[in-house]
Amino acid sequence: MGRPEQHRWSSFGAKAGLWEDRRLDLDPCYLAMGETEQQRQSRYAAFVSRGVRPSELMLIREALQRGQLTGSERFVDEIDRKLGVRVERRGQGRPAKCKK
Predict the structure, then answer these.
(1) C-alpha 93: how far from its chain's center?
(2) What's the whole-model pTM score?
(3) What is the 3-state secondary structure (H, E, C) of 22-66?
(4) Digit-coded pLDDT (tens) for 29-70
């Protein structure tokens, strides 16, 4: 997979201070990482270097395989309201039939 800065379309290099890209729009989360550009660059690089926890990576992979979203209950509810479709993590297979 390689390092983030090796990916052609990644914004990592610009956000981590490896190169300048004036076309990049900096999102509020990135801007909140520090008072100065140097602080933000350093903190962003450290954040990315920590990687993704195995449990979180498994959740993302499962959601991708099922075509479902991942996120908090609040996030899922918001998407449900906006799309009118329930998108949540469910177990495999069809729901069990009701026992009468």
Answers:
(1) 26
(2) 0.61
(3) CCCCCCHHHHCCCCCHHHHHHHHHHHHHHCCCHHHHHHHHHHHHH
(4) 999 999 999 999 999 999 999 998 998 888 888 878 877 777
Is there a single domain that holds both residue 69 and residue 41? no
| Contact yes or no for 68/78 (Cβ under 8 A) | no
Note whether 50 and 40 are within 8 A (CB): no
Domain count, the chain: 2
End-to-end CA distance of the chain: 52
- C-alpha torsion sign, points 27, 28, 33, 38: positive
Domain span holding position 28:
10-50
